[in-house]
What we know:
The complex is a heterodimer of chains A (174) and B (172). Chain A contains eight helices and two strands. By secondary structure, chain A is mainly α. A two-stranded antiparallel ribbon of chain A has the order 1-2. The longest helix of chain A has 27 residues. Chain A is globular, with a radius of gyration of 18 Å. In chain B, α7 crosses α8. The longest helix of chain B is centred in the C-terminal third of the chain and has 22 residues. Classes of the chains: A mainly alpha (174), B mainly alpha (172). At the A-B interface, α1, α2, α3, β1 and α4 of A face α1, α2, α3, α4 and α5 of B.
Amino acid sequence: MSLLYGLITGILFGILLQKAEVLRYDRQLGALRLMDMTIFKFMLTAIVIGSVGIYLMKDLGLVKLSIKATSIGAQVVGGLMFGIGWALLGYCPGTAGGALGEGRLDAIWGILGMLFGAAVHAFAYSFLKTHLIGVGSFGKITLPQFLGTNNWIVIIAFGATAVFFFWIFEKKGL
Amino acid sequence: MKSKRWNPYIAGALTGLLLVLSVFISGKFFGASTTFSRSSAVIEKSIGIDVNQFEYFTTKKGKYGPNSLPNWQLMFVLGIIIGSFIASLWSGTFKIMMIPDMWRQRFGGNTLKRAIIAFIGGAIALFGVRLAGGCPSGHGLSGLSQLAVSGFIALGCFFIGGLITAIILYRD
């Protein structure tokens, strides 16, 4: 049943990504070149709606959070590396398959590269664990926990910040 | 052509609802990058490499090992390909392309050049994202929706790395 849910959720996500045109290299690089903010509009709206829904259901005891542990070493070094690779490829792990689905065959080279990168990562994992993942490790914390504030204050502040950026994007026609 | 595109705010809002529904119904947050790690383990095993020599494939009771597939996330990633295929046929935007337009304007029509850079980019991106512990779906959509500190740091670094690289690639 879990497999079927995964497939259906993926199909719906793929339709949304394709219809909003966020899968395309030109849109991804357009965002990184600050020329076309489509993917930020899409992503930030999804996050704001997602955070309201998830924390609402969490408060009602309907869902459990699944927080990834904070490691400044791993997230800064890994995050910057991802950014470099992302700008070279123009697709991310989720959108490369989607780009392939709409006929962008150059995504195949990216997918093969990702499989190779995954193998190299697994090879290097013991080293990374010893030297990098422990640097600046804070465990599974959320921003409200870190700041010592209520979850909803952070959600409202995040939503307001997103709306402010949307206003700038629309005003500048990005 | 332009009128066919769905408004990114509406499509994004629907994506947010889809994430919430997925967490509610199946307890699954979005993510994609671990599927590449698991698939590389399956491929390595199938060509006769002993994957147990790599700690990553045996840690957490083989969570990332070759026997962890098929799982929810693999089907999710495959579903994205199918969903995009259906949607692109539906809107008439399916198009076989070996080189994106923006790339062609800057770097020309050499498919080998595009293939090499795309492969290298994919390899660096996936190494980085597995080190960081998640991709724009896992750290981005799922992490930030839960207000995770790790998500804010990762997404900020994704953007900084991407911005600088894009500026260097496309400088005049």
